[in-house]
Design brief:
By secondary structure, the protein is mostly helical. 54% of the residues lie in helices and 0% in strands.
Amino acid sequence: MGTRKHRQRQEQLWVTHRELAEAPGHPFYKRLNELLDGEKFDEFCEGECAQFYAKSNGRPSLTPGTYFRLLLIGYFEGIDSERGIAWRAADSLGLREFLGVGLDEETPNHSTISRTRRLIDVETHRKVFLWVLGVIADRGLLKGKTVGVDATTLEANAAMRSIAAKQ
């Protein structure tokens, strides 16, 4: 029997991409990505969200396709916070692949997801999600008759009001 202490070792300083352990990923996300790519999801999102992005100001933004994929991860995995979605995306090689984030890139952090959410209006969110649901329904992968979009605004536990109350 091996022990945890026996397995402890110092990690190598340099590892090539060929030496990384490969995980099979999640077949659901692979298939969903194939479906979204085939239907030109990213182009659709970019067209719907173009009005919310400046052409040349500021630092590079989170692309609309990546942003909506992050929200889909939250939905499918039952994660109800932007911080939780960011942690999950950073921790999974399969989700990195779904998002199109390379091993040498950082995944979007929660503040970037939150900023992007506030940038894009509710109607655009609704259009994109209804589009995704329509594509999935056309493929026979969805059953149901009612669609609901929740745009609840919640106060974060780091809000100034909650900090002031604790002092």
